[in-house]
UniProtKB/TrEMBL annotation, chain A:
<dbReference type="InterPro" id="IPR007627">
    <property type="entry name" value="RNA_pol_sigma70_r2"/>
</dbReference>
<dbReference type="GO" id="GO:0016987">
    <property type="term" value="F:sigma factor activity"/>
</dbReference>
<protein>
    <submittedName>
        <fullName>RNA polymerase sigma factor SigM</fullName>
    </submittedName>
</protein>
<dbReference type="GO" id="GO:0006352">
    <property type="term" value="P:DNA-templated transcription initiation"/>
</dbReference>
<dbReference type="Pfam" id="PF04542">
    <property type="entry name" value="Sigma70_r2"/>
</dbReference>
<dbReference type="InterPro" id="IPR039425">
    <property type="entry name" value="RNA_pol_sigma-70-like"/>
</dbReference>
<keyword id="KW-0805">Transcription regulation</keyword>
<dbReference type="InterPro" id="IPR013249">
    <property type="entry name" value="RNA_pol_sigma70_r4_t2"/>
</dbReference>
<comment type="similarity">
    <text>Belongs to the sigma-70 factor family. ECF subfamily.</text>
</comment>
UniProtKB/TrEMBL annotation, chain B:
<feature type="compositionally biased region" description="Basic and acidic residues">
    <location>
        <begin position="17"/>
        <end position="34"/>
    </location>
</feature>
<keyword id="KW-0418">Kinase</keyword>
<keyword id="KW-0067">ATP-binding</keyword>
<keyword id="KW-0547">Nucleotide-binding</keyword>
<feature type="domain" description="Protein kinase">
    <location>
        <begin position="139"/>
        <end position="439"/>
    </location>
</feature>
<keyword id="KW-0808">Transferase</keyword>
<dbReference type="GO" id="GO:0005524">
    <property type="term" value="F:ATP binding"/>
</dbReference>
<feature type="region of interest" description="Disordered">
    <location>
        <begin position="83"/>
        <end position="122"/>
    </location>
</feature>
<feature type="region of interest" description="Disordered">
    <location>
        <begin position="1"/>
        <end position="34"/>
    </location>
</feature>
Length: 198, 713
């Protein structure tokens, strides 16, 4: 067993774990909650820290598990809110025949200018927070935490087809949101977009 | 042909799964044809890249972190978790209890079902080369068996080993108190560190995962306590049942307790709640000291460095958890405890407690019972005033409770319970040794007393045998045809013939039995008696037997003794001690007292008593013979029951002839209690010092008899 030093955890890893949790849970309160659960579990199972990896990595492993637990619990709580599943942003992008509406994706980065990833991430983060809960849950577990389809379905108690529908709606919604905000960014300035993303 | 919407689904899925060839071809074709599709695919790929892994976090820099308030909250919760873990570290290292089914009264072990592979791995890294073994434990609660101030004790079944164990749980009322948790943990830890045959062995300490309540498993030692044994012993004494073995057993138990406490002292632990209730006796003679919940761990003791910090609960914290419980039971409390002088508590406090237990064994009472009125825990006395009395008073003695106990043992008790600590025995071992040496002496003394008692009873039995022998001979003589012939003979010649024949029989009987003094046949009638035949030994030459000539035969008024004989039914023998069977007065004792037996002779025709056959013995001679056979006693006195007059006396095997008639009290005060007891009892047993034994033999019930009094060397 390697030594752990819980007294320093908040100062050393608190912000990092919090940001990670917030990016997945999209709620500062929930993020602080899972970070706290992570630290308490770390104290309780400190003997399991072998020292072979970094202390932060070990805590991150616990945090990821806590995030999944949190999302699962929240999804279970929201199971009755079926209307969210019915929220299909693709209706705004496709016509009745299922073809792209003209200008549906207003995405036109300058062809000779490299995209500033940090700027894009601010925009994406802001858009993530607008996703309906059930779509966000699937997107976080699948796209962000890169869990297998089976795992996601098991954690959220949904079928694979349901999962693919939800993740597609999430991607379409994000694409629409990001493209719209990116356009604004190009027009009124990056700083204001950043501000908005916060 | 799929529409744009269907293709966009495939584009979405392609980022998380590999499309098959047909799907890929369809998507590629669509991307070439549709700008919207290309924009969607390109943007979705960018979004996927931006959210993968920790890229979102890494890009956030120092912004969007925790607020200072949130950090403070987190630090506080971590601090609490660390403290809680420290308090349960013992449980963790032993393999903590993690699951519970309280509904079925089942307590069972650890997180092993879920995490045993991890545990094993952890164990290896934890001990760096020393393999760790962790095993599950499971206990099924059967029934509650006891409840104390802090915990509740259950009889439980160890389901792994199939054996009965005792489980002690923290009482639900105490669960809210951190100090109670600590004290409970501390009790388990101290008990677990005291490995001694007379300290209850602790098998397991853990925390029930579901309820979170701590408990520990220990050997089930039954419910019978020393308190029960003491009560039983004194009840038997009250009922005059045999008690000597019981006292010996109780003192042996006491020595075991001393050894257990001496061991605890060697580990730096003072029990300080010693009382008979805290000593359990199992069915196999094992003595177990329990309840180390109030024990004090001496700072410089060996155990102090081995216990966790929680186990070194401060005195104030400990006392805080004791409010309203056993501290209100001052029956066995030492003066320094009663005075609240906690800094003075050391191993000698336990010496006092041991002395208090000894006191209880000897008297059946708790030392401070007189100071405390009422029944625990509802003492009607004011506790503070009781404590003041205990703190200021000298130790009680057995006589304070009207009990007679061996003096040396009482002195041991007084020394152990001395008010000043430095006046007590220096250690529990010293106290045990003092009791042991008393028992050893007592053992020799007891053996000597047993011999004395046997000798006294043999003397009595020997005298009883003489009386039976007399009765047998006299019945034989009374049935001789010579007596019938003499009775019916009318002529002097016939009478002479029958007289000679009867005299010959009497002579033969006298020759056969050396201690018979005389045989006589008397005729009775009209209130008169007349000796018909008398054969007797010479007064100075016992070997000479003579037939008394007719001219010297006696006659006269029927005496009380003869009348008693004549009043008996056929074959019934009347025996008494008298000076002269024909004398009027049968009172008093004399050195020439005779033991006389008589049987009536009935006329077969008239069916009236026509005469008596009597046999006489010189009782003084009988006693001389008995006492001159040698004796293990320092002194033997034979006294007449009616007057306490001494018939014969021997010292160191030598018969003492003072030539004077003395009473028992004139020659030895120490026999007085004995002779008084023997007026109503067959034996006198000296329960205090095992020095005197007395046995009495009544010839005429409650009227005439003799007592043998023996004093141990």
């Amino acid at each position: 067993m390697a030594d752990v030093n819980p007294a320093n955890w908040v100062d050393d890893y608190g912000d990092y774990l919090f940001r990670y949790a917030k990016s997945r849970l999209r709620d500062p309160g929930a993020a602080e909650e899972v970070v706290q659960e992570t630290f308490l579990a770390g104290v309780r199972y400190s003997r399991q820290y072998s020292g072979s990896g970094s202390e932060r990595g070990w805590l991150m492993g616990i945090l990821k598990r806590k995030i999944v637990d949190h999302i699962r619990a929240r999804a279970k709580h929201n199971q009755e809110l079926v209307y969210e599943d019915e929220h299909d942003p693709s209706e705004q992008l496709f016509d009745a025949a299922g073809n792209w509406k003209p200008g549906a994706i207003n995405w036109s980065p300058p062809p000779d200018q490299e995209i500033e990833m940090q700027e894009l991430q601010f925009v994406v983060q802001g858009c993530l927070e607008t996703l309906p809960e059930n779509q966000a849950a699937v997107f976080v577990l699948s796209a962000m935490e890169e869990m297998d389809t089976d795992e996601v379905c098991r954690e959220l108690d949904i079928t694979p087809s349901n999962m693919w529908v939800r993740i597609h709606r999430a991607r379409v919604g994000l694409a629409k949101c990001v493209s719209a905000k990116w356009q604004v960014d190009q027009n009124i300035g990056t700083n204001e977009v950043k501000q908005h993303a916060k | 042909m799929p529409n744009d919407k269907a293709i966009s689904h495939l584009i979405s899925q392609s980022m998380r799964r590999k499309l098959d060839d047909e799907e890929s071809a369809r998507v590629d074709s669509h991307l070439r044809e549709s700008e919207e599709a290309r924009k969607f695919a390109e943007l979705s790929a960018l979004i996927q890249t931006s959210v993968s892994g920790t890229s979102l976090v890494e890009s956030s820099g120092d912004q969007n972190g925790l607020s200072q308030e949130a950090k403070a909250r987190l630090k506080e919760s971590i601090r609490g978790a660390v403290q809680q873990k420290a308090s349960l570290s013992q449980a963790d290292s032993a393999g903590s209890i993690s699951a519970s089914d309280s509904g079925s009264g089942r307590l069972h072990d650890p997180q092993l079902a879920e995490t045993s592979p991890v545990q094993k791995e952890v164990g290896q890294s934890l001990y760096q080369g020393h393999e760790n073994r962790q095993a599950a434990a499971s206990f099924r609660l059967v029934r509650p068996i006891a409840e104390g101030g802090l915990g509740k004790v259950w009889l439980a079944q160890d389901e792994k080993l199939g054996r009965a164990v005792a489980i002690k749980q923290l009482k639900s009322q105490s669960l809210e108190s951190p100090q109670a948790w600590q004290r409970f943990h501390r009790e388990a830890e101290i008990t677990g560190h005291l490995e001694h045959p007379n300290v209850v062995p602790l098998y397991f300490y853990g925390v029930d995962r579901q309820s979170g309540e701590p408990f520990y498993a220990m050997r089930f030692v039954g419910k019978r306590t020393l308190s029960d044994a003491i009560e039983e012993h004194h009840d038997r004494v009250e009922a005059d049942e045999e008690c000597c073995v019981s006292v010996h057993r109780l003192l042996s138990i006491f020595q075991d307790i001393c050894q257990a406490i001496a061991y605890a002292h060697s580990r730096g632990v003072v029990h300080r709640d010693l009382k008979p209730d805290n000593v359990v006796l199992d069915n196999f003679g094992q003595v177990i000291v329990i309840d180390w919940g109030l024990a004090k761990v001496l700072e410089d003791g060996e155990l102090a460095t081995k216990l966790t910090s929680d186990a070194l609960l401060s005195e104030s914290d400990l006392l805080q958890t004791m409010q309203g419980e056993a501290i209100g039971t001052p029956l066995y409390m030492s003066p320094e405890q009663a005075a609240g002088e906690l800094n003075k508590i050391d191993h000698r406090t336990d010496v006092y407690g041991l002395g208090a237990i000894l006191f209880s064994i000897l008297t059946g009472k708790a030392p401070h019972e007189k100071s405390v009125v009422g029944t625990p825990p509802d003492y009607s006395s004011d506790l503070n005033s009781v404590l003041k009395i205990i703190a200021a008073s000298d130790p009680p003695t057995a006589s304070d409770y009207g009990k007679s106990v061996p003096r040396k043992l009482e002195n041991i008790c007084v020394k152990a319970m001395a008010r000043k600590q430095h006046m007590r025995f220096d250690s529990a071992v010293d106290l045990a040794s003092a009791v042991e040496s008393w028992m050893a002496g007592q053992s020799g003394k007891q053996a000597a007393y047993d011999a004395l008692r046997m000798e006294g009873r043999e003397l009595r039995a020997d005298m009883q045998a003489t009386v039976r022998d007399m009765a047998r001979n006299i019945r034989f003589a009374a049935g001789m045809p010579s007596i019938e012939g003499l009775m019916k003979a009318e002529s002097d010649e016939d009478k002479q013939v029958w007289r000679k024949r009867l005299a010959t029989v009497f002579q033969g009987l006298l020759k056969a039995t050396p201690y018979f003094r005389s045989f006589v046949y008397i005729a009775v009638g009209d209130g008169q008696f007349t000796e018909q035949v008398r054969a007797e030994r010479h007064s100075s030459d016992m070997s000479t037997i003579r037939v008394v000539p007719r001219s010297h035969l006696r006659s006269g008024q029927i005496s009380e003794f003869v009348q008693r004989v004549a009043d008996e039914m056929p074959e019934e023998v009347y025996t008494s001690v008298v000076i002269d069977p024909y004398g009027d007065s049968q009172e008093g004792c004399a050195t020439d007292l005779r033991l006389v037996s008589g049987v009536p002779v009935y006329d077969s025709e008239t069916e009236d008593v026509s005469g008596c056959v009597m046999i006489e013995c010189e009782i003084n001679q009988l006693l001389r013979d008995q006492l001159s056979r040698g004796s293990s006693a320092a002194e033997v006195v034979v006294a007449c029951n009616a007057t306490n007059r001494v018939l014969l006396q021997s010292r160191s095997g030598q018969i003492i002839d003072t030539g004077q008639i003395e009473t028992v009290e004139q020659i030895a005060d120490h026999f007085l209690t004995a002779v008084e007891t023997l007026q109503t009892e067959a034996d006198f047993i000296d329960g205090q010092d095992s020095a005197i034994f007395g046995a009495t033999l009544w010839f005429v019930p409650n009227e005439r008899g003799i007592s043998y009094l023996l004093r141990r060397k």
